[in-house]
UniProtKB/TrEMBL annotation:
InterPro entries linked to this entry: AB_hydrolase_1, AB_hydrolase_fold, AB_hydrolase_sf
Xref: PANTHER family: MONOACYLGLYCEROL LIPASE
GO molecular function, one term: hydrolase activity
Record's signal peptide: none
Keyword Hydrolase: yes
Keyword Transferase (UniProt): no
Sorted UniProt keywords: Hydrolase
Protein name: Alpha/beta hydrolase
Organism: Acinetobacter pecorum
Gene3D superfamilies in alphabetical order: alpha/beta hydrolase (3.40.50.1820)
Amino acid sequence: MMSKTQQLSNNRIAHYFEQGTGEPLVLIHGVGMQAAAWYPQIEFFSKHYRVISVDMPGHGQSTKLADEAKLQDFVDWTIEFIAALNIGAVNLAGHSMGSLITTGVSVTRPDLVKRMAVLNGVYKRTPQARNAVIKRAEELKTGHIDVETPLQRWFGDSEIERIASDHVKSWLENVDLSGYTTAYSAFACGDEVYADEWSKIACPALVLTGTHDPNSTAEMAREMASLAKNGVAIVIENERHMVNLTAPDKVNNAMQKWLETNV
């Protein structure tokens, strides 16, 4: 992978990895992760596509946003980043918070999105679920990152899950606390920001999750896909929140079909 940076407004830097040539595929990770969190997809798709995996603001080597930044600010940042690449419309995929950003970009600037995919996305959480996420966001403001709880929630004991868990643990332990806190707060309050805009999405839309992801449920995935004009929902059995790492072959196959969908 080639490490690159893109200068954005207000002296902000967007860091990303780029590999391969062909039609562009832009990948946006979730809260606490970094661009490398798409490693199975980067390896697989860079054989035939120009894969661009970007560090979200305040993660990896990308400049963080203001402490009070909302989801819309992350969407605006991503729009600026894609436009600055000067490569036209892209295939845009996001995981977890990245899926909320992907949705926001797709409804705000459809001219920049050829196809869109959301992995383990959230859609209109229940009040109980929203309160739990908001509580975790508030806990982060005290300066404490709970690494073990999400690892236990996301991973089992298989070899592929152990390897993925080691990667994720390292990213969480090394994340910038301020950038992480800002992003998590935006994520906690962001599930409804673009939820009523799904009917505006006309490009091919893949919505994927796992049956064992209690926060990004199969019902959410099916609802989002049903609202998009060309939406497809895929629910992978027995998989949890980090499905792109724990079931890479199934995810890659689903994304390959999505990328081959006519626009």
